[in-house]
Amino acid sequence: MKLISSIKELKNDLALERLENKSIGFVPTMGALHEGHISLVKRCISENDICVVSIFVNPTQFNDKNDLKTYPRTPGKDYALLTSAGCRYVFAPSENEMYPEPDTRNFDFGYITQVMEGAHRPGHFNGVAQIVSKLFEAVNPDKAYFGEKDFQQIAVIRAMVKQLNFPVNVIACPILREPDGLAMSSRNVRLTPVNRQKAPLIARTLKESVNFASNKSVKEITNYVINTLNDEPSLRVEYFEIVDKDTLEPVTNWAQTTHPVGCIAVYCGDVRLIDNITYKN
To answer: What residues act catalytically?
Structure first.
């Protein structure tokens, strides 16, 4: 595995790989890697000749400066995990390397960035589009892999790929969960021991709501999820919305869509966690 910190060196190395007609897969991360990330890496390795993983905590996608400051950083552990997984290149640039000057681009992806995460984290998706577009330019991958826990982000990245004409196939990979159901997240390490015990209620409640969906309305399911979680003192629901998988338009009755998805953000103590679940029609 080779560790690279400059865009120029990365481009040069990957150009040599392409001369041998090797396919390039890419997994962008912000580090603090866990088995969810490694599942993306393993899939990338299985479907491409070369696997590139980036590690960069991107400042432009944090609307909360404290969240940026406290975001976990574990480079030594990350490199060891990626070496074991079989990653070929790790791109770990400095902030100055990625932003030698401020990125003033403002993207317009319409409705998909105005709801849920977009409504509650102003500027977040613009920052995501800034950094992912820069990384795609540096890596020029054939395929890029993202976890479905960041459901709305995948929709935004696909819109960006279309808008900027990137020749990359965006691949969504299933959520990996802890044995107790909690969606794997780099932020989980910030949970206190007590809150770590409470956090799995999020996934458990979502799963239970699917069982009720066949004979309950969308509104009843929404109220059930929000009320159940808010009844736990350690948890506070920021939003829970059932939306169409492709358009992210809100669903008010099950007949509206064949692919309803419930998306949620919950504060567990002071740690913000997101998750989602698909409802069967």
So the answer is: 37
Report the relative pairing of strands 2-4 and 235-244 from DSSP bridges: unpaired
Residues 100 and 92: their CA atoms lie apart, in Å, by: 15
Q: Is 31 exposed, middle or buried (0-12, 13-18, 19+ CB in 10 A)?
A: buried
Single-letter residue type at 220: E
Distance of CA 88 to CAs 54, 92, 132, 134, 147, Å? 11, 13, 20, 20, 20
Mean per-residue pLDDT over the chain, rounded: 97
Residue 4, strand partner residues: 91
The string of pLDDT tens digits covering residues 124-168 is 999 999 999 999 999 999 999 999 999 999 999 999 999 999 999
What token pair was written down for 210? Answer: 């699917």
pLDDT at position 281 is: 60
Torsion region of 9: left, alpha or beta (phi above 0 gives left; psi -120 to 50 gives alpha):
alpha
Rounded Cα distance between 267 and 273, Å, is: 6
Residue 280 in this model has a pLDDT that exceeds 90? no
What distances in angstroms separate CA 192 from CA 183, 184, 243, 268, 280, one per listed residue? Answer: 16, 16, 31, 9, 34
